[in-house]
Amino acid sequence: MLTRFLNRFIWSVLTLVGTAVLTFFLLNAVPGDIAKVIAGSKASPEVIQEIHARYHLDDPWWERLGLYLGRLARGDLGHSYVTDQPVLEAILMRLPTTAALASVAGVMWMVIAVPLGVLTARFSGSWFDRLTLVVATLSLSLPAFWLARMLQYWLSYKLAWFPVATFQSVRHLLLPAATLAILSIGYYARLIHTNMVEVLESPYIRAVRAKGASETRVLFKHALRNAVIPVLTILGMDVAAMLGGVLFIENVFALPGIGTLAVQSVYNLDPPMIMGTVLFSGVLVVGANWVVDLAYGWIDPRIKTGS
Amino acid sequence: MRGLFNAITVGALLLMMVGVAGADSAGGLSGANVHSPKRGGTLRLAHTSDIRSMDPTTIYDWLEGLLTMLIYNPLLDYDENDKIVPMLAEALPTISSDGSIYTFRLRAGARFSNGREVTAEDVVYSLERHLDPKFHSSYANYYQGISGAAAFTEARMKELTAAPGHQPAKSGRRIEPLTVTGMHAVDRRTIQIQLEKPDLTFSDVLATPYSVIVPREEVERWGDSFAVHPMGTGPFVLKDWKRGVRLKLVHNPISLFSAQAHVDAVEALTGIPESAQVMMFERGELDFLSAIPASDFLRLKRDPNYQLCIAEATGCNPIYISLNCEMPPFTNRLVRQALNYAVNKQQILKGIQSRGVVARGVLPNTVKGFNPLLPGYPYDPAKARMLLAEAGITNGLTVPFWILQEDQDKYQTALRVQQDLAAVGVTLELKIVSYQALLDEGQRRGHVAMSIWDWLADFNDPKDTLDFLVNGERITDDGCLNVAFYSNPRVNELFHRAAPELDRGKRLQLYQELERIVADDAPWIFLFQKNDYALRQVWLKGFTIRSHWPQRLENVWLDK
């Protein structure tokens, strides 16, 4: 167990260092002089020279990489070249919004995708199952950006059911979270459906039914628990893709989260902020996989004991 | 019968005029109103990106400029007719007979929002900051004409270079001169500024948002963070700023200008995409839109609810294609002229909903000294072909053309230019690059033959555009704003004569003469100048739009 944990930890650290180094090189390869962007088109040569010196822009790449990794090791993501705000502070300030968006979307996802997957498996082949399949396929095909814009236009702008943009209360999160949830509900409902159909045919379910357990108990207590394990694996891997959805949705609805920070930093051509947001996304993906690992053990104790 | 028809027509026209006048007074074209201003309320506006800085040395875009003028004050200001008027100065400056010494007297009782009285030393300090590279001012160029500016900058640069990490300690070795010798406080309220050479635009420079007065102790207290802890003498003070989300200013009762501000607070939401801004505006969640996105422009312009609320100004924002005069084929003037004739500028403007005016030369028509007699380059592909043939180009021409994709208007324009030039045998290979790459490569000598740019003048004088963009003596190997690398000895000589000229009429004539030569030399494809638009709610009164720093919100009020 300890070896497995250590292996996992080492791989996680290597993944994050790899992400940091790769992002550094990618930004390094972008043509142009960042000092001119920071200083503005009317700046004097002295100011541009001073910005070069302040941010070590003329140092060789290995020295800058060493400086960056050294700072990272101390938990310092540096300062934005554009706003001078500490990168970590900017990320932490925006984290609650992204977390709130993901939480509300997660609740919507669970409340809809799980029962939908279970019930379509129970009534497999019925019109309800087929209709769900069509709707699921549709939701899978929708681009996040388009869906967000459409829902915003019709439900917020035309019908005024929701606020158009920004984040001032939970009400402002409902539509963005619903958009995020819609994008994944179809896929996960079908995934749960497929696993449930398989589990419902297993001998132990027949045994439970023979013992006289109620159908609700059979479905949600005995079958779902086993059917959900492969779903968790996919969910862990999907966190990165979901972050992509968050990025689009936050930007359409102007939610001040990590996604808008990432996009703004690209528009501002602000390397420390770009590197910070990419690395932080890496931390989220690695963290999500740790959580999925822990959840395995909780759902199926055999994994925890290694039996 | 015809007489009756005429009478009806005239009557109808009169009624329409009365109607328009009525509409104006009830909520008008300019937002100006015959009713007295109402006090109170929060003015709500939004911006697509974050606010980077509220330090006048590093403000960057229109919102930062607009908020700067709410928090701080410069010595001088522009009125609604682009005329310079005193602001923190009690009167316009006294200028010595040779035009090189400016003397200002501060208004009595002007205080920063921390309660301290503004002194002449604060003025000296505020302008000096632009010349100290430590503050990364983007506008040092404007103050380099002050006597002793170059020596001061050089000394500060040496100090910075000598200090470890470019962070000079307070106790570090100081290098003379410690101040700009041409600026000094004569007494507590009098400032004298000596220029190296006479320059009539110095008053204009002192009316920009960069020249606002800051309190030294606050700058020193916050260091680099002064950018997020602004403090000035203006009618508003910063109440709350959540970076990337919103910034709120509230009324500053101790400001000398407090009575002119009518709203209690100004709230700027940041990071709101343009499309969302329009929806929020139409839902009544914003009082003001600083720009109208191209996708909504025609719809809003035709909407009877908003027609009268759109404010329009002919801007000072030329869009042009630079033709690098040091790189073939543009070393040949005939080729440059041919390309100007080959581009249908009127058609290009239509493609961007006619939101601009076709350019005849370098200067926008809102700038003093604009020459309406410049012939321009009318669309004439036959003449373009003839000029190309005369230049010896008979088998066509292929040129790389650097463009930015993120600016949709410029991108669309570039595509149309590509089509027009293809019709005369010039093939443009589009090179779509980032702003960073365009700045770096385009401003470097001998790197980019053809690229699309724009320019935003900070004040209403031909010098602010011509001197930066077509003065051959400003050409540098790197970071050169004269991206066409255009130099004509006659033009350069005219710059020398025009800059120190004290006779305003003669000075403008010199600039007109040099612009005429530049237009004939065609270092650019002169495209168009963009108009500025703003949209206000019917209840937002007192708003006017200007050609330079077009939007000001100090004096607006909410009539809900």
Task: Write up what this structure looks like.
The complex is a heterodimer of chains A (307) and B (560). In chain A, 79% of the residues lie in helices and 0% in strands. Chain A is mostly helical. Chain A folds into two domains: 2-73, no CATH class; 91-306, MetI-like (MetI-like fold, Orthogonal Bundle), CATH 1.10.3720.10. Chain A is globular and about 85 Å long. Chain B has helices at 2-27, 62-71, 120-131, 149-162, 202-205, 216-222, 274-282, 294-302, 333-342, 345-351, 381-390, 408-422, 435-442, 462-470, 489-498, 504-521, and strands spanning 42-47, 76-78, 84-86, 94-95, 101-105, 183-187, 190-194, 236-242, 246-251, 265-270, 288-289, 310-323, 356-358, 397-404, 426-433, 450-454, 524-536, 540-541, 557-558. Chain B is of the alpha+beta class. In chain B, helix 14 (462-470) runs parallel beside helix 16. Chain B is 32% helix and 19% strand. In chain B, strands 11, 12, 13, 14, 15, 16 and 17 form a seven-stranded mixed β-sheet that branches. In chain B, strands 1-10-9-8 form a four-stranded mixed β-sheet, with helices on one face. A four-stranded antiparallel β-sheet of chain B has the order 4-5-7-6, with helices on one face. Chains A and B meet through helix 2, helix 3, helix 5, helix 7 and helix 11 of A and helix 4, helix 7 and helix 13 of B.
